[in-house]
């Protein structure tokens, strides 16, 4: 059957039409490139490929059409042409040069491409980020199918209208920076932010493109040099770490690129390449920027990654702070060196093909500035592991540095010394319980690197030990039995706190009680084989304020005794038990959560938990419950009658993929301040009873995917629902195969239900 569509715009052509009524292109006339897929190619049995929309270092993007859903899409093909190591065979199949690259390297490259695409697909419609519909492998490469965004690139807009003023630019870019903060939470770094990767929609809003760039393709050239796809840099917008194979990328990488983009938007001048700035830093203040504005951008474009702000939220604070006032930001301490490669003045050998950024030219300064719409700045959401400063490759990574607390002695009558644990050389004798309060020694905050497998990195300066080597962790209140080989993990360097390993058992000891740093986030990240933690009653958490991601990715833990934890000062429990996939029991009855404001993803992917008692939780100050129970797929019941949700703003994907839950009574939920309910109950496939009669949805803006794949629901009472503020409702009831009746008076919701 002939498919009569214009290959330029995908408009359907009626029989006999010889010209596209949408764009005027003659039927059958196509623009082709020798390296691109031939227009008219069908991918994955349902995606019609049209003309090429653009190309970059990592791939080619085409306009496409979903033949099943009958909607335009964008299709990105992994085709790293900048490397010169790929070619096309028979207009479809990608040929990878066997002379310069092993097949395993090719597979690693597009596997990484797909891995990030799959992460993108799970982000669930973050405003300002293009959505992902599908990922697949075909033609010896990988493809991402994304939403098609109408409009023009920010680059083209600037070239037509000229530079914009600084305040207008910041307002326009704010949603993009907010979106990047959320993207960074999920461990994704964009690495290719520039005006030609930002689309301006017809309504004036911006959408960030090209979020699936792969970074793990290693290529050995004829001269023996090794190139990485991470080195496919965009001159002017890429920081120095992207020119080095071993340069560590993180949020600071995107911060550099975002600052460079704002610099270009406001001045019309392309920033000098980072490789040029290693020898002679020519970044200079331009007439269209005040000194204060330039200083902010210059701080974000510093050569050393650790000298830049470390989170997108911090960048937003700097940009929106009153001009002329100094605003501190979260630099990495000066004692932490940057990667050697990133500090070398001589850059790697440039690639043979022209970097994409070379096509970006200075803007005509005489053109009139644009007048972007106003955007309000949202509060910063605490970010994920990607936002913690990394240390240099030449320095061993520390998972927990331990220090003597500045407060000295502290009264802790409730803290008792446990029986001493076995030392590395011989069993430890039994300790007697002291009758006086113990001195409390404090652990410093954790340091992290940015690797695909954090578990395979060393900890505590001991290169011979990796996170995955640890099977048990024991804290003990005496140094008496510490072996002579124990290493000093005290921040003071006075051997007041020691650690040692013995056949997979890790011991941490001090003469007195041991306390984590007030910021105990990421304390035990990625100790993937850790089965047992013995805190005893010498582990003092009374001063801890941040327990976010404290046990994240401890995938072998089956139980945790946290009965002695004092959580009265804790404000952040986000992702605290995230991906503790083997955890079968968890007693949190003693938790004081009265100060907690963030419980986002707290139990995410605790897939083995069959029951969870959170009835004692005080949630009166919690604002974020996004992904809180997401993928707790073994939970059969959940009593949330005591939850006070009056301050909660975000409930997106709160119960998503709780596949065994059969009933939820949320009639007592106060949702008057909630703005996001996207995917809240999606994939709750066994849910037959859902009481939402108390819901106030008058402020909710996003209900997309809210009940999707609730395949066992037969009826739903939404009589109190008000969708007047809703802007996103796509797939709200999709795949609810047995849901035939709803009680609802809101016309928008009823329409979405009928059109599912």
Structural summary, described in words:
The chain is globular and about 90 Å long. The chain has 756 residues and is of the alpha+beta class. Mean pLDDT is 77; it is low at 99-103, 212-231, 322-359 and 365-436. The two termini are 28 Å apart. Strands 1-2-3-4-8-7 form a six-stranded antiparallel beta sheet, covered by helices on one side. Strands 19-20-21-18-23 form a five-stranded mixed beta sheet, with no helix packed on it. Helices cover 13% and strands 15% of the residues.
| CATH architecture descriptor text of the largest domain | Orthogonal Bundle
Secondary structure: helix percent? 10-25%
Q: Give the name of the CATH superfamily of the largest domain.
A: Transferase(Phosphotransferase) domain 1
Question: For the report, how would you describe the main beta sheet?
Answer: 6 strands, antiparallel
Strand adjacency order, main sheet: 1-2-3-4-8-7
Radius of gyration: 28 Å
Distance between the termini: 28 Å
Output the CATH topology of the largest domain: Transferase(Phosphotransferase), domain 1
CATH structural class of the largest domain: Mainly Alpha
Strand content: 5-15%
Tally of distinct domains: 4
Anisotropy-based shape: globular
SS summary, helix count:
9
- The whole-number mean of residue pLDDT values reads 77
List keywords for this structure.
alpha+beta, 4 domains, Phosphorylase Kinase, domain 1, 756 residues, 9 helices, 5-stranded mixed sheet, 6-stranded antiparallel sheet, Transferase(Phosphotransferase), domain 1, 13% helix
């Amino acid at each position: 059957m002939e498919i009569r569509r214009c290959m330029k715009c995908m408009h359907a052509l009626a029989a006999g039409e010889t010209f596209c009524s949408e764009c005027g292109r003659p039927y059958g006339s196509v623009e082709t490139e020798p390296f691109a897929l031939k227009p008219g190619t069908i991918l994955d049995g349902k995606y019609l490929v049209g003309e090429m929309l653009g190309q970059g270092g990592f791939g080619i993007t085409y306009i496409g059409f979903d033949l099943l859903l009958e909607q335009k899409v964008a299709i990105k093909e992994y085709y790293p042409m900048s490397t010169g190591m790929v070619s096309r065979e028979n207009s479809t199949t990608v040929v990878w040069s066997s002379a310069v690259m092993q097949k395993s390297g090719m597979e690693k490259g597009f596997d990484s491409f797909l891995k990030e695409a799959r992460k993108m697909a799970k982000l669930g419609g973050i405003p300002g980020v293009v959505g992902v519909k599908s990922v697949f492998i075909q033609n010896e490469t990988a493809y991402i199918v994304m939403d098609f965004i109408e409009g023009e690139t920010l680059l083209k807009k600037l070239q037509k209208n000229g530079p914009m003023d600084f305040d207008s630019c910041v307002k326009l870019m704010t949603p993009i920076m907010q979106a990047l903060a959320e993207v960074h939470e999920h461990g994704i770094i964009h690495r290719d932010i520039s005006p030609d990767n930002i689309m301006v929609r017809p309504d004036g809003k911006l959408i960030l493109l090209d979020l699936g760039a792969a970074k793990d393709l290693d290529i050995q050239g004829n001269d023996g040099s090794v190139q990485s796809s991470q080195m496919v840099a965009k001159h002017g917008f890429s920081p120095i770490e992207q020119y080095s194979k071993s340069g560590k990328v993180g949020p600071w990488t995107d911060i550099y690129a975002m600052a460079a983009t704002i610099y270009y938007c406001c001045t019309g001048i392309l920033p000098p390449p980072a490789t040029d700035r290693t020898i002679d830093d020519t970044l200079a203040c331009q007439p269209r920027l005040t000194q204060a504005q330039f200083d902010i951008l210059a701080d974000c474009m510093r050569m050393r990654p650790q000298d830049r702000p470390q989170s997108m939220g911090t960048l937003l604070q700097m940009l929106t702070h009153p001009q002329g006032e100094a605003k501190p930001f979260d630099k990495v301490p000066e004692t932490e060196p940057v990667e050697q490669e990133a500090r070398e003045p001589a850059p790697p050998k440039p690639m043979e093909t022209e970097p994409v950024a070379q096509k970006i030219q200075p803007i005509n300064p005489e053109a009139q500035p644009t007048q972007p719409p106003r955007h309000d700045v949202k509060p910063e959401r605490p970010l994920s592991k990607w936002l913690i400063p990394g240390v240099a490759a030449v320095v061993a990574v520390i998972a927990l540095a331990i220090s003597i607390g500045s407060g000295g002695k502290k009264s802790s009558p409730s803290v008792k010394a446990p029986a001493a644990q076995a030392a590395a050389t011989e069993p430890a004798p039994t300790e007697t319980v002291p009758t006086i309060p113990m001195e409390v020694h404090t652990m410093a905050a954790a340091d992290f690197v940015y690797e695909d497998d954090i578990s395979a990195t060393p900890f505590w300066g001991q290169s011979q030990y990796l996170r995955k080597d640890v099977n048990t962790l024991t804290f003990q209140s005496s140094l008496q039995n510490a072996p002579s080989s124990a290493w000093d993990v005290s921040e003071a360097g006075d051997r007041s706190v020691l650690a040692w390993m013995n056949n997979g058992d890790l011991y941490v000891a001090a003469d007195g009680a041991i306390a984590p740093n007030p910021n105990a986030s990421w304390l035990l990240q990625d100790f993937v084989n850790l089965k047992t933690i013995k805190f005893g009653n010498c582990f003092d958490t009374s001063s801890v304020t941040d327990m976010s991601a404290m046990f994240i990715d401890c995938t072998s833990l089956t139980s945790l005794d946290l009965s002695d934890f004092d959580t009265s000062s804790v404000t952040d429990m986000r992702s605290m038990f995230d991906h503790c996939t083997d955890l079968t029991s968890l007693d949190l009855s003693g938790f004081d959560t009265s100060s907690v404001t963030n419980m986002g993803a707290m139990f995410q992917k605790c897939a083995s938990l069959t029951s969870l008692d959170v009835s004692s939780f005080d949630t009166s100050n919690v604002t974020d419950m996004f992904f809180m129970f997401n993928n707790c797929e073994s939970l059969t019941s959940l009593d949330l009658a005591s939850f006070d949700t009056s301050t909660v703003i975000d409930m997106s994907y709160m119960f998503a993929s709780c596949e065994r839950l059969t009933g939820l009574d949320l009639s007592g939920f106060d949702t008057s301040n909630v703005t996001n309910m996207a995917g809240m109950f999606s994939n709750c496939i066994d849910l037959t009873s859902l009481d939402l009669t108390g819901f106030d949805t008058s402020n909710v803006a996003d209900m997309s995917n809210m009940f999707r794949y609730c395949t066992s629901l037969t009826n739903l009472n939404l009589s109190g629902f008000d969708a007047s503020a809703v802007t996103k409702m796509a797939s709200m009831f999709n795949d609810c195969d047995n849901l035939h009746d709803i009680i609802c008076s809101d016309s928008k919701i009823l329409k979405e239900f009928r059109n599912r």
